[in-house]
Amino acid sequence: MRKLIRGGRVLDPASGLDDLQDVLIEGNRISAIGPGESMESKLDSSVQIIEAQGMWVLPGLIDLHTHLREPGEEYKETIFTGSQAAAAGGFTSICCMPNTKQVNDNSAVTDLILRRAAEADLVRVFPVGAISQGLKGEVLAEYAELKEAGAVAVSDDGQAVMNGLLMRRALEYAKVFDLPVISHAEDRHLAADGVMNEGAVSARLGLKEIPSAAEDIMVFRDCSLAALTDGRLHIAHVSTEGAVELIRQFKARGARVSAEATPHHFTLTDEALESFDTSLKVNPPLRSAADVRAIQNGLTDGTIDAIATDHAPHSSIEKDVEFDYAAFGMVGLETAVPLTLRLVEQGILTPLQAVSKLTSEPARIIGLDLGRLSPRLPADVTIIDPGRKVTIDVKLFRSKSRNSPFHGWEVQGKTVTVLRDGKVIFKDQ
Ligand code: DOR
Ligand code: ZN
Question: What is the pLDDT of residues 321-335, one digit of tens each?
Fold first, then answer.
């Protein structure tokens, strides 16, 4: 079966291509990319045409940071519904965090995730194993076993590793298997029972505070340990100006450090919490305008390599409660594309830069030969209409959960068609 994606603006950051071209797919692979004329000799009536005039044709998007809630909290999200949400958001690959119940700290859980993902047959699901057994921060998980089962990284996301020696050993042990260690950088004693960023807004609202220092200190510790061990460190969901500056400095010194920022951290400030909308309660918390500017600058200059959603589904049981008691997290898979396009509109990122942070950069960080458009590679392709105006409506989400503060936002950019392995896994009606 052959498919031709015709007449779109093909953006492939890995090769620097940004041009009106056609993409020919044969079976599950890309077979050619080039100007329309170059395709004519290859066409016959059996080729299925996908018209893409006015659209952007991109490598399938890759999310480094998704919380699927299976096994254990299937009422929030399953591997199937999370995969549907991912595809609808333009993603063809997602990395799922291990803080499920069972924790993904062993091959049985990794196997289960991969089996369920194969049954769903939508996006590629790459499991992230735990740094420590049970995310308890006491004993390392078995990375050989996790890697063998298919884990692409290790993280105790949701729970910071408070023991510096354990983190050092994690970087050393993961290095043996060339696995990145993803740090949820938070000093839990400093964060204590805080629910929002510490600053003028928290003083006004009277909510308990999480200082920026809780993140900065741990970013410094983990970057120092990466430099010490020459291990591969990836900082998840960067939210502070201090963290951006530290990552910049350690990268300049040659430490093997990468970083991601979420759409909510580069879009919203803590001022939004005046509404007391619990879907704005995330960890790390939404920060000040200066922090948001620093994250945007970090994205522009490459200090922050990738954009990742931290898609964290929760049900109304966890969210329709007082702010202090609500769970941390918001869903993000189905809003990442339009929120990223706002950065392009504001001149913060070029189109190629924006696409790189959702494709080639996450692929590089996790070590996948995906995230670029090239003959012989799997035909993972995302087609978006960058100009389409959309009002975000949580009722239309494929995700089981609705905890998004972007409900009602008028944005631009809509995922139109998504192919994984040449198969259409999402089509806008
Ligand atoms: O807001 C968050 N939600 N931050 C995390 O680190 C964990 C996540 C979750 O699992 O709900
Ligand atoms: Zn986290």
Answer: 999 999 999 999 999
**Which protein residue has the closest C-alpha to ligand 1 atom 3?**
329
Neighbouring residues of the ion ligand 2, judged by CB less than 5 Å: 157, 184
Lookup: tokens for 211: 């200082």
- CATH code that applies to domain 61-366: 3.20.20.140
Active site residue 12: no
**From the CA of 310, how far away is ligand 2's center (Å)?**
7
Question: How does strand 56-59 pair with strand 2-12?
Answer: parallel
pLDDT for the residue 41: 87
Rounded CA-CA distance 235/48 in Å is 42
Mean pLDDT of 131-154: 98
Tell me the CATH number of domain 2-57+377-427, given options 2.30.40.10, 2.60.40.420, 3.90.1150.10, 2.60.40.10. Answer: 2.30.40.10
146-174 confidence digits (pLDDT tens): 999 999 999 999 999 999 999 999 999 99
- CB of 161 closer than 8 Å to CB of 219: no
Residues carrying CATH 3.20.20.140, the chain: 61-366
Longest dimension (CA), the chain: 69
Residues 329, 334: Cα–Cα separation, whole Å: 15
Of 157, 291, 310, 380, the catalytic one is: 310
Strand order in the sheet with 257-261: 61-66, 91-96, 124-129, 153-155, 181-183, 233-235, 257-261, 306-307
Instruction: Tell me the pLDDT of the chain averaged across its residues.
Output: 98
Minimal-distance CA residue to ligand 1 atom 6: 158
